[in-house]
Specification:
alpha+beta, Aminopeptidase, six-stranded mixed β-sheet, 28% helix, 31% strand
């Protein structure tokens, strides 16, 4: 599934050395896998902390009270069927249960479907920053920074 997403969307931007490790990042709190016809069709990881200081500041809470949406992807053949929304809602519910503020970042270019989903579900664009990592072309892409307002109270 990840290979199909990478081929279609260049996500992740660089193919990971170990895809299994990539889908389970450090500080993993929880992960969800959507399954259709017995095979994985979507994935989302929820990680502890805000990934970087700027998102923590924008959420207005210390890192110990923040979770980051990470590694959200849906197989191209299963998009526009609510899979990403279901995964995101599951993570939002878990964060609410634990009273964690939710944040995320997304590459600014070419992710209009993801941005549309986040904004439709109430995520608020609060800033942007340059990525700390390099794209295959050697550039540092711009990232859009989002906070889920209800979760940051």
């Amino acid at each position: 599934m990840l290979a199909a997403v990478h081929q279609e969307d260049d996500y992740p931007t660089r193919w990971p050395e170990d895809p299994s490790d990539w889908v389970t990042p450090p500080s993993l709190l929880a992960a969800w896998v959507a399954v259709g016809d017995g095979v994985p069709i979507g994935h989302l990881a929820l990680v502890a902390g805000g990934k970087h200081e700027q998102l923590e500041q924008l959420a207005g809470r210390p890192a110990s009270q923040i979770a980051t949406i990470s590694r959200l992807f849906v197989h191209p053949a299963h998009r526009r069927r609510g899979v990403g929304e279901a995964l995101l809602r599951a993570a939002m519910a878990r964060a609410a249960e634990r009273n964690l503020a939710l944040v995320l970042d997304v590459v600014n270019e070419g992710r209009s479907a993801a941005v549309g989903l986040y904004e439709r579900l109430g995520w608020q664009l609060v800033g942007s920053r340059t990525a700390s990592w390099l794209s295959p072309s050697g550039d540092r892409p711009r990232l859009r920074l989002y906070v889920l307002p209800d979760s940051s109270r």
